[in-house]
Amino acid sequence: MKHLFVIIFFLIGYLNCLAQEQERDVNKSVDSLYKEDQFYAGVTYNLLGKMPENVSQSGFSLGFHLGFIKDMPINKKRNVAIGLGVGYSANSYNQDLLIDKDNMGNTTYTVLESSSTFTKNKFSSHLIEVPLEFRWRTSTASDYNFWRIYTGFKIGYMFTHTTKYRGDLGRIGYSNIKDFNNLQYGLTFSAGYSTWNVYVYYALNPIFTDDVIVNGKRVDMNAVKIGLMFYIL
């Protein structure tokens, strides 16, 4: 995950350099049919909503996101558009819900009583996503620095996930447990000026299926992501 963090920020820097080069050349060729923001890369702090009683997050949970969105202007000024794309998302969630298996191979869920008994307890997910956005901006054919507000919906397929525990119980890890909801979807919002944009994602469905029970109650935890999103042509 740390290596992915470095790669994404090198990518952001590279794409930003390309944008500056395009802006320097804008006076040479102005495209009246211009499009905006067709590549994106971002980093988020991942939160868990609707956590069961006594479950809490610990440590720093990160998400990394990148992809391509087809920008399709829908008005003459080309400052209102629909965006449809495809992307990749990697996420980790550090918390104190232990995911293990009993002697029969059944998955169990237990709330860890003290953070002092473990050094790591998290689950991670990797998704292919399809974002759909309604886009408003103040751009023109010759202005690469502008205000934007993008709202939309994102659907993702979790093609792999892992769980990791390190502590008094030893080392425990699993992958592709059937209790995870492979289909994830939610609302998105990003707004900002030029390179820097605040980004929020709120999942509309839970991370786990209805089969996951803790203390007699269904676990309805959902993902909430808050961070920065970078856009480039």
Topology diagram in text:
Layout: H1 2-24, E1 39-49, E2 62-73, E3 80-94, E4 97-101, E5 107-111, E6 118-137, E7 147-167, E8 170-175, E9 183-193, E10 196-203, E11 213-214, E12 217-218, E13 222-232
Antiparallel strand pairs: 1-2, 1-13, 2-3, 3-6, 4-5, 6-7, 7-8, 7-9, 9-10, 10-13, 11-12
Q: Describe it for me?
A:
The chain has a single domain (2-25, 34-232), classed as Lipocalin, CATH 2.40.128. Helices cover 10% and strands 55% of the residues. By secondary structure, the chain is mainly β. The two termini are 26 Å apart. The strands form 3 sheets. It has an 8-stranded antiparallel beta barrel. The chain has a two-stranded antiparallel ribbon with strand order 4-5.
The geometry reads as elongated
| Lateral strand order in the biggest sheet | 1-2-3-6-7-9-10-13
Mean pLDDT equals 88
Distance between the termini: 26 Å
Q: Which CATH architecture would you pick?
A: Beta Barrel
CATH topology: Lipocalin
Level-1 CATH class name: Mainly Beta
> Mind describing the biggest β-sheet?
8 strands, antiparallel, barrel
* CA-atom Rg in angstroms: 20 Å
Q: Hey, roughly how much beta strand do the residues contain? A: over 45%
Structural class: mainly beta
Q: Give the total of beta strands.
A: 13
Tally of helical segments:
1
Order of helices and strands: HEEEEEEEEEEEEE
Instruction: Please mark out the parts with pLDDT under 50 across 5 or more consecutive residues, or reply none.
Output: none
Helix content: under 10%
Protein name: Outer membrane protein beta-barrel domain-containing protein
Pfam families: OMP_b-brl_2 (PF13568)
Domain Outer membrane protein beta-barrel: 24-208
